[in-house]
Specification:
Blueprint lengths: L1 E6 L4 H10 L5 E6 L12 H8 L4 E4 L6 H6 L1 H21 L3 E7 L22 H16 L3 E6 L2 E2 L11 H10 L4 E4 L3 E2 L2 E2 H13 L6 E4 L6 E2 H11 L6 E4 L19 H4 L7 H11 L4
Parallel strand pairs: 1-2, 1-3, 3-4, 4-5, 5-10, 6-9, 7-12
Antiparallel strand pairs: 8-11
């Protein structure tokens, strides 16, 4: 029986990992929550892992991902996304545990206009992006048996912890209020259903993939947030007054990449990621919106 320790078990991705692994035989998922281990305090990491002890794989879904808030609390961002990740990597290396870690498309600057590969130069624009990249570097420095999954623009059934849902639910809620909506049209990304990340990650574990390293793991294809919203309303048959707006008209504390589409060719050799439109349709069906 393979034992997997899941950190951040009640988030969007953690919830979907529980769902996927519940269907897998010979795998035991051990859920860990913030009440068990608070990643804001790196000194808690190693003692907690020593106490837990009996597991083969660690999946780290914890993250301080409130992008704008990270600008105000950089020490918190680097504690959770970097320093605690370093402690995690050191423990896993010392005790021969495989580590899966979730990173982000925000490690890139967005200066390209073709999808980013795993070997493209990182150049984060924000505290959040820099803290996540530092976490990646710590893993690479301290451990050999790791998988870093870079993900993008997540939506999942549980909603993002601390964000009060996700973009899909926000759009549907606002549309039901009958308000005209303006959505950013010049930031291009790849919407990703967390259920698909969970399936890919599960596949890697079940099949004992040992080609360690960084993998892009996002919905296939690309769109702007405006295009994403338009597709949501099209699939749900909602009549909404929707118009595009440029990002410079919608000021945020943190700078975001104008283009952060991820090239999935590497992960597609192991688990083909579906088109984001197909993933959205599955999500809307699961949530009862269509």
């Amino acid at each position: 029986m393979k034992k997997i320790l899941l950190l951040g078990a009640n988030g969007q991705l953690g919830t979907d990992l529980n769902l996927i692994f519940s269907e897998v035989r010979d795998v035991q998922l051990i859920n860990a929550y913030r009440s068990d281990i608070d990643m804001e305090f790196p000194e808690q990491v190693s003692p907690y892992l020593e106490k837990r002890g009996d597991f083969d794989v660690v999946i780290n879904c914890t993250s301080y991902h409130k992008t704008d808030e990270c600008e105000d609390f950089p020490l918190k961002a680097f504690s959770i996304n970097s320093a605690s990740v370093a402690e995690l990597a050191k423990y896993c290396n010392k005790n021969n545990k495989v580590l899966f870690h979730i990173s982000t498309d925000y490690v890139f600057s967005g200066k390209k206009d073709i999808p980013y590969s795993e070997i493209d130069r990182e150049e984060p624009l924000s505290v959040y992006g820099n803290s996540k990249l530092a976490g990646e570097h710590f893993i690479q420095s301290y451990h050999d048996k790791y998988f870093i999954f870079r993900v993008s623009s997540l939506f999942g059934q549980a909603g993002a912890s601390g964000k009060g849902g996700n973009f899909v639910e926000t759009m549907i809620k606002l549309a039901k209020e009958g308000k005209p909506l303006k959505v950013v049209s010049d930031q291009i990304m790849s919407p990703t259903h967390t259920l698909d990340i969970a399936r890919a990650l599960c596949d890697f574990i079940v099949k004992d993939v040992n080609q360690y390293g960084i993998y892009n793991c996002s919905g296939e294809g690309q769109c702007s947030w405006y295009d994403f919203a338009r597709e949501i309303f099209l699939k749900t048959n909602m009549d909404v007054e929707l118009s595009p707006v440029l990002s410079n008209e919608y000021k945020t504390k943190a700078r975001r990449p104008k283009y952060s589409v991820l090239d999935n060719r590497k992960i597609n050799q192991f688990y083909p990621m579906p088109l984001w439109q197909e993933a959205l349709e599955e999500y809307l069906l699961l949530k009862g919106h269509i």
